[in-house]
């Protein structure tokens, strides 16, 4: 904040070299400050514009069906009924299932790569996991369709394997790379001196991992989990391919269901009027969930900074 | 005088043999005395210290031959590393309390051995903190984070943590090098009390410190144990010219 104190008009008329270079530096400083600000504004502005337009577009639906009619309504029958509770349930169920299955696997993998595996093995697993992160979601959809869906059909003897369970399993795999990468990084960031201190006390490597290293990396691991949840909640393509997409309330995880994201993607191309507006309303609900997750993330990061 | 630890023809190589860091070391460490390891930077003091509780096992590519015995028992043969490290505790150069409460720091090692009884843990925590001359300073805030302690207090906490395991030997690697003179004095006084019960091996860069607190001193130079003797003798009438040069401050 020294720009105020360097007042270029106060440079003496005799003009020495120093104030002149000072003036040039001052100009550059300003230029870059504005550049940074512009870049930052683009991001924030996009967020504001997106939020504003989705909100604007969703208003007719909320006006016709009411907030509770949409959020707690159990029937989706456009153009008569716009209840998206089944979709909220499907989104939450598939995400919770994905986290319940994916996070333990991811955490164990992260621990394995960071602490247990010999170097050469870690150097094979780590890039493989990174590759997993780069696979497009439509390919995960294929994987679900070819392997998981028929498997569920056979094992549970259901008419169609396109079920909430299939969605959970596919999402579980999809969140692995995020959770693994973030957890591993935070495990590696735990000071080596902790581990040395623990082993020097005669604690076993496993005790050291679970009672010292993992708790020390806790907030980083939780960040990974939340990023994973966000990914699962926002996933669309793979879910459409494996979950059956029936807009009715699923009675169990062995029934088909439609997530919030799938609802938007499936119907947006032909919807109009209040129907289209109801899809924007679906987007608003999704946005609220994501914002809640981000709030948690922000809180965790502040905890970590403490 | 009984020897607690005996080191015979110990060679250590880093990097799969690339770096011969300890050259045929022979050294006896008597029980309930303070043995100081001195020598210029990089001469292998820490390396030798870490051989005594097998912390070098953690470093990839380390090769060791020779014999190290604790109570006449080879610590590299048929020995459970965990129980060895309980018997031979270690205090590090930089205090490394765990990110948990003062109480949990002390109880950590016992919990790792499956001790869960509250009463036992309470007793051990109090006794260890008293032994480390820290009890009076922290007794009202046992549940607060160990990071809130000063550097000197943290180091005494680490000593207390080691004592909690009821070791026979305590290894200390420059435990006061990051501390001010007053905190250093406290730890030196503590070492004097602790030696009545424990065998202490301490690495130090300060010859004054070695003189003040140790009974025996071993002088190392580039991986060789040049000379070891009663501390007074080693400092007053060193047998080797290199020792004389070092203790007179000619190099190092
Ligand atoms: N982890 C390691 N890997 C490879 N070489 C090492 C390692 N640790 C130490 N060395 C080498 O072994 C030699 C002795 O190191 P050591 O740390 O034991 O010295 P030191 O006497 O403790 O020195 P200082 O007084 O600086 O602590 C040095 O040449 C050092 O470079
Ligand atoms: Mg050292």
Automatic annotation (TrEMBL), chain A:
Family, per entry: Belongs to the binding-protein-dependent transport system permease family. CysTW subfamily.
SUPFAM superfamilies attached to this UniProt entry: MetI-like (SSF161098)
Domain of life, source organism: Bacteria
Keyword Metal-binding: no
Cellular location(s): Cell inner membrane; Cell membrane
Function, as annotated: Part of the binding-protein-dependent transport system for phosphate; probably responsible for the translocation of the substrate across the membrane.
Classification lineage: Bacteria, Pseudomonadati, Pseudomonadota, Gammaproteobacteria, Alteromonadales
NCBIfam families: phosphate_pstC (TIGR02138)
InterPro entries per UniProt: MetI-like, MetI-like_sf, Phosphate_PstC, Phosphate_Transport_Permease
ABC transmembrane type-1 domain: residues covered: 88-297
UniProt keyword list: Cell inner membrane, Cell membrane, Membrane, Phosphate transport, Transmembrane, Transmembrane helix, Transport
Membrane topology: Multi-pass membrane protein
A Pfam family it matches: BPD_transp_1
Species whose genome carries this gene: Shewanella corallii
Keyword Transmembrane among UniProt keywords: yes
Signal sequence coordinates: none
Regions crossing the membrane: 31-55, 84-117, 129-152, 164-182, 221-244, 278-300
Protein name per UniProt: Phosphate transport system permease protein
């Amino acid at each position: 904040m020294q720009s105020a104190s360097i007042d270029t008009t106060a440079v003496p008329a005799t003009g020495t070299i120093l104030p002149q270079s000072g003036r040039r530096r001052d100009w550059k400083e300003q230029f870059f400050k504005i550049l940074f600000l512009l870049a930052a504004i683009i991001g924030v502005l996009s967020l504001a514009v997106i939020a504003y337009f989705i909100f604007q577009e969703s208003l007719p639906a909320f006006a016709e069906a009411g907030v509770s009619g949409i959020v707690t309504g159990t029937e989706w029958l456009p153009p008569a009924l716009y209840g998206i509770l089944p979709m909220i349930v499907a989104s939450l169920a598939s995400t919770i299932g994905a986290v319940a299955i994916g996070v333990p696997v991811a955490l164990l993998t992260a621990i394995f790569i960071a602490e247990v595996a010999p170097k050469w093995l870690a150097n094979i697993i780590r890039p493989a996991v990174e590759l997993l992160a780069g696979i497009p979601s439509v390919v995960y959809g294929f994987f679900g369709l070819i392997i998981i869906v028929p498997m569920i059909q056979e094992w549970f003897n259901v008419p169609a394997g396109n079920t909430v369970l299939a969605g959970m399993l596919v999402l579980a795999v999809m969140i692995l790379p995020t959770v693994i990468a973030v957890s591993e990084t935070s495990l590696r960031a735990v000071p080596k001196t902790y581990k040395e201190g623990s082993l020097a006390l005669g604690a076993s490597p496993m005790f050291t991992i679970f009672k010292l290293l993992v708790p020390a990396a806790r907030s980083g691991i939780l960040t990974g989990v939340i990023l994973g949840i966000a990914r699962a909640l926002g996933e669309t393509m793979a879910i459409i391919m494996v979950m059956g997409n029936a807009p009715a309330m699923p009675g169990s995880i062995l029934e088909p269901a439609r997530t919030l994201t799938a609802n938007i993607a499936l119907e947006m191309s032909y919807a109009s009027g209040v129907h289209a507006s109801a899809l924007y309303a679906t987007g608003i609900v999704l946005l609220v969930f994501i914002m809640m997750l981000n709030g948690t993330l922000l809180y965790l990061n502040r905890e970590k900074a403490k | 005088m009984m020897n607690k630890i005996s080191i015979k023809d110990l060679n250590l190589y880093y990097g799969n043999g690339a770096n011969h860091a300890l050259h045929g070391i022979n050294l006896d460490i008597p029980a309930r005395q303070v043995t100081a390891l001195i020598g210029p930077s990089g001469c292998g003091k820490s390396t030798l210290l870490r051989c005594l509780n097998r912390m070098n096992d953690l470093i990839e590519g380390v090769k060791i031959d020779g014999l190290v015995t604790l109570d006449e028992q080879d610590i590299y043969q048929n020995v459970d590393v965990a129980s060895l490290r309980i018997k031979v505790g270690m205090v590090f150069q930089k205090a490394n309390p765990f990110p948990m409460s003062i109480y949990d720091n002390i109880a950590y090692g016992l919990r790792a051995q499956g001790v869960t009884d509250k009463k036992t843990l309470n007793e051990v925590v109090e006794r260890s903190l008293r032994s480390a001359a820290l009890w009076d300073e922290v007794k009202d805030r046992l549940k607060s984070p160990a990071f809130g302690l000063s550097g000197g207090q943290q180091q005494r906490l680490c000593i207390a943590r080691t004592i909690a395991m009821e070791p026979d030997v305590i290894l200390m690697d420059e435990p006061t090098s990051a501390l001010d003179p007053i905190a250093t004095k406290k730890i030196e006084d503590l070492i004097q009390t602790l030696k009545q019960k424990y065998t202490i091996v301490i690495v130090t860069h300060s010859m004054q410190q070695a003189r003040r607190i140790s009974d025996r001193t071993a002088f190392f130079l580039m991986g060789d144990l040049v000379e070891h003797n009663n501390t007074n003798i080693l400092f007053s009438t060193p047998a080797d010219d290199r020792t004389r040069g070092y203790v007179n401050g000619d190099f190092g």
